[in-house]
Amino acid sequence: MKIDEPAPPSEATVLGLDNVPLELPIAGPGSRSLAAFLDYLVVGIGVFAWGALCVAISTLGKQTWWWMLALFLVGFFVIEYGYFAAVEIAREGQTFGKWAIGLRVVTREAARPGPAAFLIRNAVRSVDLLVGVPLMALDPLSRRLGDRLAGTLVVYEHAATREMVLRRTPRGWSAQEAALLEAFLWRAPEMEAWRAERLARQLLKCIRHDDPALAAEIDPALSPVDALGRLVKSA
Q1: DSSP secondary structure letter of residue 18
Q2: pTM: predicted TM-score of the whole model, two decimal places
Q3: Which residues sit opposite 101 in a β-bridge?
Q4: What is d(CA 229, CA 69) in angstroms, rounded to the nearest whole number?
Q5: Residue 229: C-alpha distances to residues 23, 164, 205 (Å)
Q6: Tell me: the pLDDT tens digits for 182-200?
């Protein structure tokens, strides 16, 4: 799949769909910090319960204070890491805090990250508690350390992202190509009309080449963007 004539990216632009620039509404340090604050309220409940359990265990046995401290710290890391990683994987890039603020984690290509990316970006969350905000403030894409390692971004979510589901993909396309197609479709309404139409025509051309059977269902009466959306979103 090849898209021609990529435009030069700007600071708020990411490259998706074979280097086609997509303008993404990058979430800044303020909104991300607020989302993190809400998430840590949830984490705090779990940590408090774990701490109470550790104290109860210490009163029943003869463990030393440093052993109990080590046990508490291990539990804290498991709760913190487990919450963020598990919820982001289960909710496709949204913790409850991000959901409340309207944020979502995506890849640099504006696609949905895989589980490995969520595991990587949260593995250094404890470090990001110290350096995350300065790194985001200095980075044009507002990335913390975990984002840099995992190749992810945090963006403002639009209603289209909640509704977009590809029911069919062209034969032979990889999961990454399908994710990029999905990213284009939910970004198309916010792109300049001429650019969205041009990219949709090229994507339809790719589909005609890769999957003639699917391409036979393209409705010529629709605009390229609408025809592409109907083709891959209808069962």
Answers
A1: T
A2: 0.62
A3: none
A4: 55
A5: 19, 10, 14
A6: 777 877 887 788 888 888 8
